[in-house]
Every structure is written in structure tokens, then in C-alpha cells.
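Format notes (please read before filing issues)

Several people have asked whether sequences and C-alpha cells are stored in separate files. They are not. Every record keeps both together, in the order shown below: the sequence lines, then the C-alpha cell lines. Line labels are part of the format and must not be stripped during preprocessing.
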Amino acid sequence: MAKRSIPKRAERYTVLIVTEGESEEAFLRYLRSLVRAERSVTIESAHGGSPEYVVERTERLKKDRSYRETLAWVDTDRFRVPEERTCLFTRAAKKRICLLFSERCFEGFLLSLLEPNANWAARGTADAKKHLDNKYHSEKRSTDPSRYAEFFKYGFEEMDELRKRDSDSGHLLDVLMTALFGVTRAAG
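Then the structure lines:
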């Protein structure tokens, strides 16, 4: 009797993304909801802390499961000297963690997409948070993924246009979308 051949199930591409806070996590969950992708993406928050703590949390989460790609998203405004950034980058690289540096706080990142004509890179974290809360998060729901659908009303297609407006935020958005969907451009 011939042995039946059982087709192998294709292994899913697995990604782990660890963010500094719950708002970043909610934003990524919103992006993830826009398109059904073939990737298995785990999005976790480090629940605040320094960039070093975010990398430590990423290392611990990575130990629990094998991921094809691992990213940690940190803000550079927390580094006191440039050497800290280099040291953390080296540490993450040794652990095969792609470190994503945001040149501004998360709120500044969002505002650079929503209001590109204002210079959010030059404004401080407190100013960006206050403006975002007053204008966009009136109900203080920054950790609710559906709240971002209200900001970005046109969904996935809008992201391609938004990423062109600000080079720093656009590059970060490109990397995040590639990790989430396997594409560099939203239209791709």
C-alpha cells in the first residue's frame, strides 16, 4: 500500500514588535487591522521605561518563541548622550533585534503625519502630547486602536501619502509597514 503524502503546511513569517508604551501598541494594532496579511505579528508594549528597558523586554519576549524578525521601537529623546544610542544599538544587534529609533516622541511622530506643516521635530514632548490630547484624543483614548481610525479616515491607502510628508516619520512608517505586511509601500 502506498503511503499517503501529507502536504507540509507553509510556515508563517513571524514578527515580534515591542513598543515603548501602550499608545504605540494601539497604533500598530490599528495598522495591523487594515489589511489581512500572511504574517503572524505579535505586538507588545514595554509599558514605559527607558530605551534600555524596551530592549530588555524585547529580549525576554523573544526567548519565549522563535521569531523570524524582531523589532524594538524606542524614542531617541530619552538618550542623554549619543554613546548611549550606539551602545544600545550594538546590544540589540547582538541579540538580532532591529532597533527602530523615533527621532521624536510618539505623539510628535503622529503629529508629523497629521500636521506636516508644523515643525514637530523642534517642539518638546510635553507640547506634542498636550496638542495631540487637546485636538485628537479629547476622550483620552490613545490606547484604543479604533481611535486611530478616526485620525486616519482613509485607512491603508492614506498611509502611503502620509509617509511621504515627513522623511523621519515616513521612514519609520515604511519599516513598520514592512514588518507588519511584508511590503515597503502601502500601495504595494
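For reference, the curators noted about this record: Helices lie at 22-33, 51-64, 82-94, 106-114, 125-135, 145-151, 155-162, 167-181. The longest strand covers residues 13-19.
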